[in-house]
Design a protein that fits this description.
The chain is of the alpha/beta class and 460 residues long. It has a domain of 172 residues: Rossmann fold. Helices cover 39% and strands 7% of the residues. The strands form 2 sheets. The chain has a 5-stranded parallel sheet, sandwiched between helices. The protein has a two-stranded antiparallel ribbon with strand order 6-7. It is elongated. The two termini are 62 Å apart. About 2% of the residues have low confidence.
């Protein structure tokens, strides 16, 4: 709580000092102790608990906190009284409490707030009760009628408290010892009168009209907070209804932030419609001038051939890409020499490379195919004759693959030895289990070398 930047609301219980504090601040009352910091130009409002009129020793802890705040805080005091007496205490009892705690108001700006004027006003009270407020005004305490329900007089109370608090601060500083040092550095410049022409202050018409509306108590515009309290759970915050657009029906149009990879905000221009209209007019003038009527010059024969060749190249590239995708299989791949070559595929490839395949019957691959393939003719069926010999000649068996290509027994032995040596490492690793670990160096020298050799100190 700043030392001399505060306001305190005091009064009996249920007279409305809590609601008064809420209306002054514009927020709900904080019902707990919180930390704060002092900021120049700000005012703090302290809502003290309701105080009962009984001796000091009979007050409870909450009431003593209010008494302590009144005694120690340098602030403007707002003493709230209930005109309607709906709090359960009459005006005389409220005045007695005021007289009881009056010593706490010494050297503090004090304002008497007559609350709940929407129920009953001072003019509607009896003469005896009206005399109470007349005596307070005669004693130098300003009386302001307010209503936290209709917000009548709340701004006046706030303004009066701030002005009196500021005047009290200035007066206190003027009585200090440092005032002379400050006054020597201050100079009030007053301009000389230039002529006899009157130059009254200029107040805009909007400000004058707003003051008149405030004086007659015109209902103010509903804020979003009021709508939230009124609607409850059905309230939805809608800020687009305040958008100032040329066409009000466009407020709820959905505009994306990113469209086709472009940031829409980069293309927003207030004059975009005007520029579009100018471009359309320019286009109409060009069309009327006949700029788009002239036909393009016919291309020569060489350019046509180039374009045709470029088209063929593009088609060829597409076919190559498709063929490459077909070849990119995940299965096992065979070498080109092991694949069966079809004659038609070979002829098509040769033609695509520019080879003349007209005399293909005399080509080497056709001649080779005729040599390697015997002409099979149907053999005439012979009569079955019993075999003349008991045993025939035995055919030779095929050479095993592991010895094929080796010229003698010595070379076969050498190949088997090389195979065993190459397999030895894999066999050794195949016997390795999960628990087999080899530690290569149990005593690394960079950790164990040093001067401390006595005893068991084997480290540095």
């Amino acid at each position: 709580m700043p030392g001399d930047h505060g306001q305190e609301t005091v009064g009996r219980e249920t007279v409305g000092q809590e609601t008064m504090g809420q209306e002054i601040v514009g927020q709900e009352t904080v019902g707990r102790e919180t930390g704060g910091r002092e900021t120049e130009g700000w005012k703090a409002v302290v809502d003290t608990p309701g105080i009962l009129d009984h001796p000091l020793e009979d007050r409870n802890t909450i009431e003593m906190q209010a008494i302590t705040a009144l005694a120690h805080l340098r602030a403007a005091v707002l003493y709230v009284m209930d005109l309607s007496e709906q709090c359960g205490h009459g005006l005389k009892e409220q005045l007695e409490l005021f007289q009881n705690i009056k010593p706490l108001f010494i050297n503090k700006p004090l304002i008497v707030v007559a609350n709940k004027c929407d129920v009953k006003r001072i003019a509607e009270l009896s003469e005896e009760d009206q005399k109470i407020f007349a005596d307070l005004q005669a004693a130098g305490f300003p009386v302001v009628e307010t209503s936290t329900l209709t917000e009548e007089g709340v701004i006046q109370v706030k303004t009066e408290a701030c002005d009196r608090l500021l005047a009290h601060r200035v007066e206190t500083k003027m009585k200090g010892n440092k005032v002379n040092e400050v006054l020597n550095r201050l100079h009030l410049a007053v301009p000389n009168k230039r002529d006899d022409k009157e130059r009254p202050p200029f107040i805009p018409e909007g400000v004058v009209a707003r003051r008149k509306r405030m004086d007659i108590g015109e209902p103010r515009r509903k804020r979003e907070r009021d709508l939230e309290v009124e609607l409850g759970d059905d309230y939805v915050l809608d800020l687009q209804k305040y958008w100032d657009l040329m066409n009000s029906s466009e407020r709820y149009d959905k505009i994306p932030e990113i469209w086709e990879g472009h940031n829409v905000a980069d293309y927003i221009d207030p004059d975009i419609l005007q520029k579009l209209e100018e471009l359309e007019k320019e286009e109409e003038l060009r069309t009327a001038a006949g700029e788009y009527d002239s036909e393009s010059d016919s291309e020569d024969e060489e350019m046509g051939e180039i374009r045709q060749l470029a088209k063929q190249i593009r088609e060829k590239k597409k076919l190559k890409i498709l063929q490459s995708k077909e070849k990119n299989t995940q299965g096992p791949r065979m070498p080109r020499t092991a694949k069966k070559v079809q004659r038609k595929v070979l002829e098509d490839e040769m033609r695509s490379l520019g080879v003349d395949m007209d005399d293909k019957n005399n080509a080497h691959y056709a001649v080779q195919a005729r040599r390697s393939r015997s002409i099979t003719r149907k053999r005439k069926r012979e009569d079955s004759v019993p075999p003349t010999s008991v045993a025939g000649s035995r055919s030779c068996s095929r050479t095993p693959r592991d010895v094929s290509g080796l010229r003698d027994v010595k070379m076969v032995k050498k190949a088997k030895t090389m195979m065993k040596n190459a397999q030895r490492k894999m066999n050794r690793l195949g016997k390795k289990g999960e628990a087999d670990r080899h530690v290569f160096d149990m005593k690394p020298k960079h950790l164990l070398s040093g001067k401390r050799k006595a005893g068991k100190k084997d480290r540095r």
